[in-house]
Design brief:
This protein is α+β, with helices and mostly antiparallel strands. It has 10 helices and 4 strands. The protein is rod-shaped. 16% of the residues are buried.
Length: 324
């Protein structure tokens, strides 16, 4: 038996015969789409944009130029943007955000200290949070929440935490260097105090009160007074100790200058991220609108109802051919 054919003319006739069914199914699909939009809980999407500043502008060698002047771009490069993106995707930063935003009060899964609840908070944040670079070398941060204020607050908090984390990456090293230099200054203070006592005792013992340190330049010393056994050796000892002490005092002053420079570079007044668009509570919910949903649902209903009518018409013709 030959397989029955089903050409275009028959398809059109089948659609015309069942157009009422097609219309009903299309209208029903649109109604279901409208009900879905109306009963679905609305979500709101907040957005913020910021630029990444060049961290080298907060470096000691840039603030206190002493040798040469080099051009440093104000804006951070691709590497800096990659670092900020990596921080935004890290669990450490995300944990700080959910804690600072009180996710336990927003989503009410339980205490953040609970491991299970904390995992759910992190999962919800990862699902609704997005951070991406644009072709203009700025970074866009978005978050979707059920309340407009929550969405805007979480986005602004995310930018704040990112700025603090990115700045801390550099300032922590500078603070460590300052602390290391400060420990060296304390060592020098002890050594200088010991040498000062030694020099004072030698000068009082032999009556040597002239400046006789060979380490001090452009100093004219007068005639040396005094004498007696051991006077010459005392002069040499005073010169030796004085030269070492002068060098330690010079080093101490240099180290204190370094400490002041490092202190200037870790100031909170230096911004590492520049917000160009702050997140505000959105006024319209995110997602497709009611009209767009009706159009899509109507098209889907029309398509599947037409396919259903054509398939049923073909099967009826096939059954008739088998019975004949």
């Amino acid at each position: 038996m030959a397989t029955p054919t089903f050409d275009l003319i028959e398809s059109i006739r089948a659609i015309q015969k069942q157009k009422r069914l097609i219309i009903i199914m299309t209208v029903l699909a649109m109604a279901l789409g409208a009900v879905f939009v109306l009963i679905k809980k609305k979500k709101y999407k907040a957005e913020a944009r910021f630029l990444v500043n060049n961290p080298l502008y907060g470096d000691r060698h840039t603030l206190f130029r002493t040798r040469e002047t080099r051009y440093v771009d104000y804006f951070g490069g691709d590497d800096d943007l990659d670092r900020v993106t990596a921080l935004g995707n890290s669990d450490t930063v995300r944990d700080r955000i959910i804690r600072n935003c009180d996710f336990d009060k927003i989503y009410k899964f339980g205490s953040i200290s609970n491991d299970t609840a904390h995992a759910r908070y992190m999962s919800v944040f990862a699902k609704n949070f997005n951070l991406k670079r644009t072709e203009f070398k700025d970074i866009v941060v978005t978050y979707i929440a059920y309340e407009p204020k929550d969405a805007a607050g979480i986005v602004n908090m995310a930018v704040q935490v990112l700025e603090e984390s990115f700045r801390h990456y550099y300032t922590a090293m500078k603070s460590g260097m300052r602390a290391s230099v400060g420990m060296k200054v304390k060592e020098l203070d002890s050594a200088i105090a010991v040498m000062t006592d030694t020099l004072a005792n030698l000068r009082d013992q032999y009556g040597i009160y002239n400046i006789i340190s060979p380490a001090r330049q452009n100093v004219i010393t007068g005639d040396m007074k005094g004498g007696g056994k051991g006077y010459g050796k005392a002069m040499e000892e005073v010169q030796n100790i004085e030269s070492i002490k002068d060098q330690l005092v010079t080093d101490r002053a240099h180290y204190i200058s370094l400490m002041n420079e490092y202190s200037a570079t870790v100031s909170d007044s230096i911004q590492y991220l520049k917000v160009i668009t702050r997140a505000v509570p959105p006024t319209a919910p995110t997602g497709p609108s009611l009209s767009m949903t009706l159009i899509v649902a109507g098209f889907v209903g029309l398509f599947f109802s037409t396919i259903y009518v054509l398939m049923m018409a073909y099967f009826r013709k096939l059954n008739a051919a088998l019975k004949g």
